[in-house]
Amino acid sequence: MLIIPECEIADLMTREVAFDAVEKVFAAMASGDAYNFPVVREAIGHEDALYGFKGGFDRAGLTLGLKAGGYWPNNLEKRGLINHQSTVFLFDPDTGKPSAMVGGNLLTALRTAAASSVSIKHLARKDAKVIGMIGAGHQAAFQLRAALEQRVFEKVIGWNYHPEMLPNIEKVANDAGVAFGAVELNGMAEADVIISITSAFAPSLMADHVAPGTHVACMGTDTKGKQEVEAALLAKASVFTDEVAQSITIGEAQHAVAQGLIAESDVAQLGAVINGTNPGRISDDQITLFDGTGVGLQDLAVAASVVDLAVQKGIAIKVDF
Question: DSSP assignment of 57-68, as one string?
Fold first, then answer.
């Protein structure tokens, strides 16, 4: 079995490799060549932590495995560790033997950012110039870096529950040579693309905050009860997701479906747009929304890519198991 420690991931994985891996997985899911297993996610009753498993099998890429991990909200304050902790395990689909154990923290951040940037590539207007960020935590910086590579953005606007955290994303904008401004939520109407990346259980972005033609990527809702945007926004938008079953049960669409504002049939796979079986955006005034719930196949795809890179560079640790 090969081990790729967390400390090696930063020197191996790039945003470009993560984007390619995630885009291919979305396409494979939509064509029926890959599928996710049911998600297990539980509050463990210790340290306020949420812990669970995401897994799946990609026949096209012959990738089988799972990611184990979750959210420990006290880590940063108590221990100086990031709150999200995870590890990816890969298995040989021919024999079932474990083939690799890969640090999953940075990979999770990169694949989540890659998912929203794939949605921007395929759904945002080509002339998008202003990108809005709702959320300014650890993951927000990854989201913005990846998104800025998908269009020639001229301005970043940002809002956060805790405004003192906005410098986290302002620095990313400055490093990219893009102007930054803090706004109130109604100021998001200026944005052509909006990324919401929070862990909220109540909506902040409302339907009337979003202008016609905007693409919205909702990336924080991955658990029953979480909610980042008003359900009415999904009723106004063309809704796309990574996996429909997750979207309507633990994703942003759960609330709109529960309220009868949309049906399961109103939620389309982003992979179908990539494959050309769904037209995606069909007009400049159409609001598109990507419900990024986070699927295990994304984790497996980026982990498999990093294993290949580690083997090529001779830094994969081989152990008998």
Answer: EETTTTEEEEEE
